[in-house]
């Protein structure tokens, strides 16, 4: 059974209540329960942190033994060389995901420090971006 971590960064604990026009109205915990039902042959875990260090610690914790990480680093995508370095340091493949199409948003969101270290990037499909990230890791 594959072990995959869904790792969310800052402010994603507010899904379902913040900026519904961008992020939708479903909270992530209920969505995660749907994913566990949809992928019974995958050991899915979920972790969310608003602090950069906690995200890095979680990447380190699973990054040499698990089968994949689906990462939405939120705003840290556009600012964190430290998270990029953590991804580069581990052997577990990381799929970068975004709920919105960041290229349709503010220009500062067009650049990711993480993408070059990730196996792939999925964006703009709402919460389905996570589902697609899981599927891509299952196929590898």
Summarize the structure.
This protein is α/β, with parallel strands linked by helices and 140 residues long. It has 5 helices and 5 strands; from the N terminus they run E-H-H-E-H-E-H-E-E-H. Strand 3 (68-72), helix 4 and strand 4 (94-98) form a beta-alpha-beta unit.
Care to describe what's here?
- With 140 residues, this protein is α/β, with parallel strands linked by helices.
- The protein has a single domain (2-139), classed as 3-Layer(aba) Sandwich (Rossmann fold).
- Helices cover 34% and strands 20% of the residues.
- It has helices at 20-23, 28-38, 52-62, 81-89, 128-139; strands at residues 2-8, 42-48, 68-72, 94-98, 120-123.
- The protein has a 5-stranded parallel beta sheet, with helices on both faces.
- The longest helix is centred in the C-terminal third of the chain and has 12 residues, at 128-139.
- The chain is globular and about 35 Å long.
